[in-house]
């Protein structure tokens, strides 16, 4: 025998659903989004910013690696030993 | 009434792209195996494929045709997620915007509508999770449930039944609510529910049993 829940679910599945018309608005949203995206990439300053970021990031990483290397506590000792020898 | 006011395009773009990549890598195999029978594969409309191809190349008229073809079917699915007309319409619109942004991930192995329903489930589930985090749910008391039990099911109209089920399931966590909605209200098989949620078949089965027992604990004789 079907439970009350099952019976109600079956009825709920046959419910008439309100009609929607979203095609126009969906396309308008998509177009607005595409305009915004292209506006971003069309600006020369944005390109300059993107390029300089692309150069700056590896430079910062390299600087960090070199700083760690030169500030190594054993570095001075190893230099002194190599000089004495 | 709760207002669904998140702008879908500008807020979730990164999320959608990430999810699309994840989908491509992790669910592509499942999509070809789970839930899509040979019969369903033959239901792939060539007109859809043509419009999808044109839409991918930026033809908005083609995408408009796709939206017009499937908006009522998606509206039916989204009505399970929100019964507020304004929110419902926004959810339907979100589904089509998200689908447009993920069009590249559609592989012509399943009918377009199935793929859309998968996105619809994702959008609806996200909405429920957002609602749950804001604690904005309607209360459904035991007394109201007793009133339902005292009536004969024949006396209850389809609209009333849908309203009762919606309010009843709203008392559960989104995950339980989703699996029960798909299995019992939408009438999905385990395979179809697994395809729509992206879960495994075992997970769907386990989740269904857990959710049903939770519901019975909360509302006796459910």
What is the secondary structure topology, with strand pairs?
The complex is a heterodimer of chains A (85) and B (222).
Chain A: H1 4-13, H2 23-42, H3 44-70, H4 73-84
Chain B: H1 8-33, H2 38-41, H3 46-56, H4 60-78, H5 85-101, H6 112-133, H7 142-150, H8 158-169, H9 174-185, H10 190-197, H11 201-218
Describe the structure.
The complex is a heterodimer of chains A (85) and B (222). Chain A has 85 residues and is an all-alpha fold. Chain A has one domain (4-84). Helices cover 81% and strands 0% of the residues of chain A. Chain A has 4 helices and no strands. Chain A has helices spanning 4-13, 23-42, 44-70, 73-84. Chain A starts with a helix and ends with a helix. The model of chain A has no long low-confidence stretch (mean pLDDT 84). With 222 residues, chain B is mainly alpha-helical. Chain B has 2 domains: 8-136, Rna Polymerase Sigma Factor, Chain: A; 139-222, Arc Repressor Mutant, subunit A, CATH 1.10.10. Chain B is built from 11 helices and no strands. Chain B has helices at residues 8-33, 38-41, 46-56, 60-78, 85-101, 112-133, 142-150, 158-169, 174-185, 190-197, 201-218. Residues 5-12 and 24-36 of chain B have low confidence and may be disordered. The A-B interface holds A 3-9, 11-27, 29-33, 36 and B 8-10, 13, 60, 63-64, 67-68, 71-72, 75-76, 79, 85, 88-89, 92-93, 96-97, 100, 148-149, 153, 156-159, 161-162, 164-166, 168, 184-187, 215, 221-222.
């Amino acid at each position: 025998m079907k439970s009350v829940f099952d019976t109600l679910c079956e009825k709920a599945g046959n419910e008439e659903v309100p009609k929607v018309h979203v095609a126009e608005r969906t396309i308008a949203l998509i177009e607005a989004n595409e305009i915004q995206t292209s506006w971003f990439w069309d600006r020369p300053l944005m390109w300059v910013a993107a390029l300089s970021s692309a150069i700056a990031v590896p430079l910062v990483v390299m600087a960090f690696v070199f700083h760690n290397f030169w500030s190594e506590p054993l570095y001075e000792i190893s230099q002194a030993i190599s000089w004495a020898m | 009434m709760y207002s669904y006011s998140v702008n879908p395009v500008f807020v979730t773009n990164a999320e959608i792209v990430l999810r699309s990549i994840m989908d491509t890598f992790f669910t592509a195999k499942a999509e070809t195996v789970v839930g899509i029978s040979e019969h369903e594969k033959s239901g792939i409309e060539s007109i859809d494929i043509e419009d999808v191809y044109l839409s991918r190349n930026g033809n908005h008229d083609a995408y408009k045709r796709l939206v017009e073809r499937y908006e009522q079917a998606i509206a039916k699915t989204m009505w399970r997620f929100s019964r507020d007309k304004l929110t419902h319409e926004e959810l339907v619109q979100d589904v089509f915007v998200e689908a447009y942004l993920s069009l590249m991930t559609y592989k012509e192995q399943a009918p377009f509508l199935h793929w859309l329903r998968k996105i619809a489930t994702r959008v609806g589930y996200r909405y429920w999770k957002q609602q749950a985090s804001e604690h904005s749910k309607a209360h459904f008391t035991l007394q109201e449930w007793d009133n339902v039990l005292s009536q004969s099911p024949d006396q209850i109209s389809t609209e009333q039944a849908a309203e009762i089920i919606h309010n009843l399931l709203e008392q559960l966590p989104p995950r339980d609510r989703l699996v029960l909605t798909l299995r019992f209200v939408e009438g999905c098989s385990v395979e179809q529910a697994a395809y729509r949620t992206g879960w495994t078949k075992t997970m769907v089965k386990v989740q269904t049993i857990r959710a049903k027992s939770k519901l019975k604990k909360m509302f006796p004789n459910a």
